[in-house]
Amino acid sequence: MKKKKIFRLKRDSWYVERTVYLIAGIFVFSGSLLALLVDIRFIYFLMLVGGMLMFFSLTGYCPLSIVLRKGGLKRGCV
After folding, report:
1. pLDDT tens, residue by residue, 12-46
2. Domains in the chain: how many in total?
3. Between 43-59 and 16-37, two packed helices, what is the crossing angle to 10 degrees?
4. Which residues fall within 8 angstroms of residue 12, CB to CB, at 6 or more apart?
5. How far apart are CA 78 and CA 71, in angstroms?
6. Residue 57 domain-assigned?
7. Percentage of the chain with pLDDT > 70?
8. Second label for 16, Cα 20 to 30 Å away, from 32, 63, 64, 70?
């Protein structure tokens, strides 16, 4: 019986896809913290982040990845 492998991203360097995941995680974490501690209206920011993640998964178009590529990061997944 063949053992199933767990999906892992390459961790040897920072590239566009990995950086997008990191920035999205930072936005969600900080937005949640701000909504709890400062003002509930930060939920709208979280909705924007979630909407952009869904948009990216459905269309493959990510404005943040364009900015990161122009900033010099390379693609890790082909």
Report:
1. 778 888 888 899 999 999 999 999 999 999 999 99
2. 1
3. 160
4. none
5. 19
6. yes
7. 94
8. 32
Q: Which residue's entry shows tokens 């920035």?
A: 23
Q: Is 22 inside a domain boundary?
A: yes
Report if residue 3 sits inside a domain: no
Q: How far apart are CA 20 and CA 57, in angstroms?
A: 12
Alpha carbon distance 21, 57 (integer Å): 12
How many other C-beta atoms lie within 10 A of the C-beta of residue 62? 19
DSSP calls for the chain: -PPPPPP----SS--HHHHHHHHHHHHHHHHHHHHHHT-GGGHHHHHHHHHHHHHHHHH---HHHHHHHHTTPPP---
In a domain, 53, yes or no: yes
Query: How is residue 18 written in tokens?
Result: 């990995």
Phi, psi dihedrals of residue 59, rounded to the nearest 5°: -110, -25
